[in-house]
Amino acid sequence: MASRTNPAPTAEPTDRRQEILNAALACAAQAGVDAVSIDGVRARCGASVGSIYHHFGSREGVVAALFFDIFAEQSRSVQAQLDAAVGVEAGVQALVTGYLDWVVAQPVQARFLFQARGPVANGPRSAELAEAARGRNQALLAWFEPHRRGGALRDLPCELMPSLVMGPVQSYCRAWLSERAGQGGLPSPQVYRSELAAAAWRAVRA
Amino acid sequence: MASRTNPAPTAEPTDRRQEILNAALACAAQAGVDAVSIDGVRARCGASVGSIYHHFGSREGVVAALFFDIFAEQSRSVQAQLDAAVGVEAGVQALVTGYLDWVVAQPVQARFLFQARGPVANGPRSAELAEAARGRNQALLAWFEPHRRGGALRDLPCELMPSLVMGPVQSYCRAWLSERAGQGGLPSPQVYRSELAAAAWRAVRA
Amino acid sequence: MASRTNPAPTAEPTDRRQEILNAALACAAQAGVDAVSIDGVRARCGASVGSIYHHFGSREGVVAALFFDIFAEQSRSVQAQLDAAVGVEAGVQALVTGYLDWVVAQPVQARFLFQARGPVANGPRSAELAEAARGRNQALLAWFEPHRRGGALRDLPCELMPSLVMGPVQSYCRAWLSERAGQGGLPSPQVYRSELAAAAWRAVRA
Amino acid sequence: MASRTNPAPTAEPTDRRQEILNAALACAAQAGVDAVSIDGVRARCGASVGSIYHHFGSREGVVAALFFDIFAEQSRSVQAQLDAAVGVEAGVQALVTGYLDWVVAQPVQARFLFQARGPVANGPRSAELAEAARGRNQALLAWFEPHRRGGALRDLPCELMPSLVMGPVQSYCRAWLSERAGQGGLPSPQVYRSELAAAAWRAVRA
DNA sequence: AATGAATGAGCCTTCATTCAT
DNA sequence: GATGAATGAAGGCTCATTCAT
Phi and psi for B59 in degrees, rounded to 5? Predict the structure, then answer.
């Protein structure tokens, strides 16, 4: 929708689309996904109501676009660690630490992903979300498959794998993120980085 | 707020309070927690706007009351299986299967619990929620403690225990519940009941 | 919805419902039915947005309620002249003059009826409108029937009767009303009162 | 505004102007004149927003242009039957049947004419509309004049003539058109073609 | 002639909440 | 305990229109 080739040498380098998404994320960070309102977004970036609708079609469209952008970025981040890993054990651990490191590095985005999944899943782009999630799981399983066949991994139902590997780390990260600037809250996931990685390996090794 | 010792001289045995909560749950089941509105509730049960406010004080009050009711019921359900378990391993597995069985038996309530946690945690009863969650975790840890000291359990940080034990089953149940009456969806958690229980044990045994 | 028994001895005797309808008519008179907006109505009577919705459910609801009120009043007005008429010829003429007199006496309402019919007919109360229109036609035909059988009226298809009797007077009144405070406009229908009445009789007499 | 002598070196033979008007008519046919929006038109034909403004200047301009086009076409159609008629009676009847035949042949356009008259009459081209209407009436009266002077026609006020002659057929056609693809609706005007023509003659003959 | 991004006023509607009865 | 009329802030969305390219 919006294309711009090297637009201004001075100030506004980012295009409207991205400005709007940034503003939406800022709204969500402050008061939750439900607080992402057209007017709130409009107030943060300079965009007009009409411009937001021109680019995203609806409030839902803004949230969904942001969700998919962040989702993809997170996937890339995890994939990078996975690609760098050598061996089964390191691979399994990379999935955990790749996820954990990204959450710690981008807590705002991570919180948004948790919060926005429901709304997106129930919205008009639910099929797209299902497809993206399926794709990610397939990639994970495809990576596992040779090792499982080679006997390095326990023979578990493939529907269970994601939950067994990622369940604990997601559970902990979710709890950590859900605390509002906690004083007496949970320690950073970084503290348990190796424990969580090790637990994932124990869960699936032969 | 509402107590009734003389249940009604005439017909209706159920009290208003419960009718309202039932209606609220029905609203949430249909379109998510955010769709629980005073007017939506009013339309489902016969209660008037004023009556709802009389009993619960606010919309948030309705959601929170429902949340705590369900939360307590779920805790009771899990506790019952835990109480019946003999030995460490059986105990750990009871936590998983107790949770899993309740989710399968009460999927509507389970979905509500997932959805409403955020709103309740950010509302005026957040302290109460934190306390309830802490209490449940403490109970779990207290149950574990003697076995850990006895060497039957791995020496893990206690902040991690809940995620290691319950993370996978919660992850799977959440995924299962989030599918809207799926045709090609995930199998019932029951299918993986013993796998999930066994995995929990592997995660924490010495 | 709104009941009020002898509320105030001094000023506001009319209830909210009627105040809202009056305001809506005033809006329509000034700038057409399409200009009946919730906010315009709210500004004219003191009612709040919520109050309007409480009574009428939607903007469409306000317009429809006003339409049906005026429609009924017009029917009553015509019926009164018809009841007073003696003989076939006088009856046919009473239909025309009854209508014409009402239009001249209530031009604002008459204009509204012309303008709002389309929207109401395409809205959710279209069935009700069809029924009301059918009822009025049936009443007219039922009144004609004995005279037609008695040979005083030409044997015409009953679907055509309303158009033959009322078509000309409606056509003229519509043209007259559609002129905005005309200087060089059409003369008042009153000028052609007897001509139009006579024409109606010529159109259907045996 | 748009003239084209060199219709296009490549493919598309129809010009933009007409495509836009066709799209506008389609919008109106589906949901009424008020539903003719720039964006709706844009979505139907391929034209861009700017292109529509280039050709018609405003939304009102599109509606008005379409109205005058159709109005002129209808006039031509009626005039053709009138020209072919021989004698007073045939002439009067030709006015009715010419109108009726056109409505039946072009119901979509006819409905648009009924719906759009108000908006156009209140818009910036109202004078033009008044002139067109006056012109048509003058033509009709001019055609009548010699016959009236010759005593073949009743001596009626000329303001009344259009309503007396065309009122019934317009009334019936309007009612017929306003039914949405009716199942139990009114019969086609064709069914009463000769009745309506005869009635018009009875209304004005000496 | 054409394009489409941007604008912002204006609209309808929902909703939590209050309060007199 | 219960009722429902009234309130008004807030939100989503449509739409005609402008303008730089």
Answer: -60, -45
Domains D14-57 and D66-204 alike in fold: no
Residue A180 has what pLDDT? 66
Angle at A40 between CA A35 and CA A45, to 5 degrees: 130
More confident residue, B129 or B2: B129
Q: Which fold has domain C66-204?
A: Tetracycline Repressor; domain 2 (1.10.357)
Report the predicted TM-score, pTM, of the whole model to 2 decimal places.
0.89
Is 50 exceeded by the pLDDT of residue A38?
yes
| Structural element, H or E, at residue C84 | helix C59-84
The domain locations on chain C are 14-57, 66-204
Per the structure, the residues numbered 49 to 68 in protein chain B that have their CB within 7 angstroms of any atom of strand F are 49-51, 53-55
3+ Cβ–Cβ pairs closer than 8 Å linking A and C:
no
Torsion of CA B104, B119, B135, B143, to 10 degrees: 30
Best mutation target among B115, B163, B201 (most A Cβ atoms within 10 Å) is B163
A90 in contact with B, Cβ within 8 Å:
no
What residues of chain D lie within 8 A of the CB of C175, using their CB? 162-163
What Å distances lie between residue A193 and A97, A168, A178, A189, CA to CA? Answer: 7, 11, 18, 6
Do the chains contact at B178 and A118, CB–CB below 8 Å?
yes
pLDDT digit string (tens) for A71-129? 999 999 999 999 999 999 999 999 999 999 999 999 999 999 999 999 999 999 999 99
Q: Report chain B residues whose CB lies below 8 A from the CB of A160.
A: 168, 172, 192, 195-196, 199
Q: Which nucleotides of F are covered by protein (CB under 7 A)?
A: 1-20
Spatial distance between the Cα atoms of C16 and C134, rounded to a whole number of angstroms: 31
Six token digits for residue A91: 């691979």
Q: Mutate one of C160, C180, C191, C193 to test the D interface: name it (highest D CB count within 10 A).
A: C160
Domain range D14-57, CATH architecture: Orthogonal Bundle (1.10)
Q: Which residue reads 């033979």 in tokens? A: D13
pLDDT at D13 over 80: no
Question: What pLDDT was estimated at residue D181?
Answer: 60
Report whether pLDDT(D188) > 80: yes
